[in-house]
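TODO from last week: model DUF676 domain-containing protein.
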Amino acid sequence: MSRLETLEQLRERDDTFAPSDSTVARLEKLDRTVTFVPSQIGAADQVPVSYTSDPGRLLWYDLKLFASKLTKATGVFLPLRVGRDAQPYDELYPSVTNIWSCVLHTILGVNQGMFLCSLPWYLFAPVFWLILYVIFFFLINAGICRLLNGSDLKIYPTISVDPRGQFRDEYWIFMNGVSVGRGWLQANVNRLSQTFGRRVVGVHNPSDGIVFDLIQCVIQRNFSYSTSDVREAYLSIKEALLDKSIKKVVFILHSQGGIEGGLIMDWLFAECSRFQLRRMEIYTFGCAANHFNNPDYHETDGDQVTDGKCIEHIEHYANLGDFVSQIGVLNYTRVANRYMGRLFLSPDSGHLLNQHYLHTMFHLGQDGRVAENNPFMDLEVRVNYHDLDPGHEQMASFLTDRSGGVNFGSKMKFLDRGDAEKEKEAIAGQHVAFVGDVNRAVRPMVLLQSGQEPRRMFVKDFSRLWQYRNGGSPPDEPVKA
């Protein structure tokens, strides 16, 4: 057998490393549920991950995957938010900038569709006329894209954040997804900056129109194709990692930005030391990448042996009804050693960053600050081992505050193999979040102090990104320079 196996073969062999189809099916039955899947550990003796396979095979698999998920396509734009539920940062909010962006996207989409459909007819025309037609179309397309994207590769927030320079030693960078022009990227950058109280720099992945953007996504993730924005973001992150005055680099990715971010991380793993990479944190929304690496490290200091990951904190947030998540993070987390990082899965639909992800997970109150409670973060967590390997005692023991001795496991509800009554109870629940352990124990971000009574755990207790809201910071251990 070839050492490079197809994705189908890997899924058949290693389907126990991620939530199975039955787990996702149970999620679809629930009204308000979130699935949390801790990071995969991976192992050196596992077969090479399949994204290194022949690009032709990967392309063919992608085409079949897209066709099988077409029923989720409408979930990219839905739900629409109107009235009091709408916020000015939303991509489809009826502002002049958003209406102008939608008009340009419509023109680009219609023109590109007509162009591709017309190409077979020009096969019977003289080559000279075909060349002229193609050149004329791309000139028109480039002109419209220029109106949509502007000329700046980097976008900075236009709102006031961190006026006292409290976080000058942190570098936050964001890469957008498909079909995002200058106006939407500015709204993304402003929303992220306001949400986390930091200055977030946006590296623009310019849109060529929805049709051409999708084609570019397929090429990027199957042929490792890097564009100018990929190279710009790579240089910016590497400079920040080499700058000793920067103590933390936070990389936020959305949609196609996840593909580009995965390429950037592959380069950084090859060129930066583990001690530099330990200052990085990565958070994705609706990630379209087909892999996300995070190499192991093993070091010995006298009699003490330490094992871990180069990037200590990676979190993926996905909506179940999001077409891009279905063909990206939700499909490839099923393959062992393929998608490193915690996965938070919401039953909602929608792919737009501000309107569907941040609006739900980091909802802004009337005072412009992230509300302390929202339906996503307030869901109760339940640990599900139905489709996973034995060894859940490790999780129960790891859910113990080492400093205070508070055992969270005593308040967590575990679903063991073959427990039909608990399974039925879980399906009937309306406000419960599932936690599935892939390979390793999970540790909550929020720990009880010594002497406090154990309590039920919620999604916000497991989300590190949640700790950054409104200029907050999660507790960190010192990072060696």
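Done. The radius of gyration is 23 Å.
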